[in-house]
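Our consortium's second objective concerns turning raw sequence data into structural hypotheses that experimental partners can test. To show how far this objective has progressed, the report includes one record in full. It was chosen at random from the queue rather than selected for favorable results. The single chain below, 219 residues long, was entered without modification.
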Amino acid sequence: MLKYFLSILVSVTLSIGLRAQDAAIKKFRFGIEAGPNLTEIYGDRYRPLHTVPAVAFSCGFNFQAALIKHLSFKTGLSFERKVEKIQEDVNYSDETMQATVSGRGHSNFDYLTLPLLIQFDAGHPVNFFANLGPYFGVMVHGKGIVETPDNSTYTFTPNTNKFDMGISFGLGLAVEIKQSFTLTFEARNNLSLLPLYSKYKELKTNSTVLLFGFMFGTP
């Protein structure tokens, strides 16, 4: 009789433990996301130049943890390229070019970015969401390209700040395909608060990203 009772007690305990573990796992979601972005450079000094928004891309991993009902913490690590494009002839010079040249150019700035967001979710299975929070970035590579009127091409290294920080705001839609698989679509704006260049403190970046991704796990 005692053995039978102990057997039932162990079975119930294991069942409760497994359910608790499963509930804990479902509070977390992991995934990947990628998509195109559109970068603008803003600042007073830049207004006279004929600049245009330039298209690049972003991709990375994300992680989401439920806090309370309809509210969660979202972060991740992404690779984002931002592009500066000038539509008129400008003089360029730096140590790597060993000369000053005139032409139309663009620069690529590659960042590793870490967002720290609070996300509000509307419901399931079709879930509209919004998120807001700071982001932090480190530039891993920067390259400038100049095309001169005689069709020559020069490359140079822009004199930029290595760190970036700003505010992220996003609106999106999550569609639950299966219990543990969700497709996500999001438009996110990243407004930088730090200068892009070491010399021109007023120039900053503003990028808008269209992110498409999928996540595993359920809230």
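The partners drew two points from this record. The helical segments are 2-25. The first strand starts at residue 28 and ends at 42. Both points have been shared with the crystallography group to help prioritize constructs.
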